[in-house]
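Table S2 (text version). Query chain:
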Amino acid sequence: IGTVPDGGVREEKEDVGQYTFINSKREGFDIGVYVVGLVCWLTGKRPESVYGLTGNYIFADHYQNDVEDFSALTIEMEDNLVGTTVSGRIGWMSHPRGGPIKVFIIGSKGSLVVDGSKPRVEIYNEETDFTPPRIHPLDPMGMWASTNAEVDTMPKKRWVLLNDDSTVMHNDVDAFIDCIKNDREPIMNAAAAAPLTEVILAGYISSARGQPISLPLSRDTN
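Corresponding structure-token output:
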């Protein structure tokens, strides 16, 4: 059950202001950057326009801090490619694991679905189900792994993945160290990240205006 006040409808603003608070973050920025990055990396195409939508459906913390807990973007790219991203933060009990992680690729000759939670085994028995941990005052939503360890967060055992996903962060760190040692540019460097930031900023402007925003964004030369 969400905690957003009944009748509470947030209006997005073009000037984003603060992105991060102790108890909430702008999810289009915090989670959305991964999804936008994946879309742009997979397609290799330049974004040309963005149509965005933000909303508040779950957390009072986000609503009170005037930041969204849900974001959706439609990104029109060169060569008539269109990508749609959906990102947000859900409650502890909303999903058997951390949340849905899926990519849908739809083309003229077929379609493909990539699910980050497959292959898996789904388990239902009399074992005690997952219950939310105590609230940590410095990380109320449990955004950091270190916090989850500190408050003894229960493991979720309904979905047991057949592939080992516990080394994902280690792989990222290893790749980063490898780039430093071998003086190689990472796949996601500053040059690749700049257009992603512009897409997300355009998404907020679009959400505020209710219309698509063309890219690149205008530069203030004064």
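Notes on Table S2: The CA atoms of residues 44 and 151 lie 42 Å apart. The beta strands are 47-55, 70-77, 81-88, 102-107, 110-115, 120-122, 159-161, 213-214.
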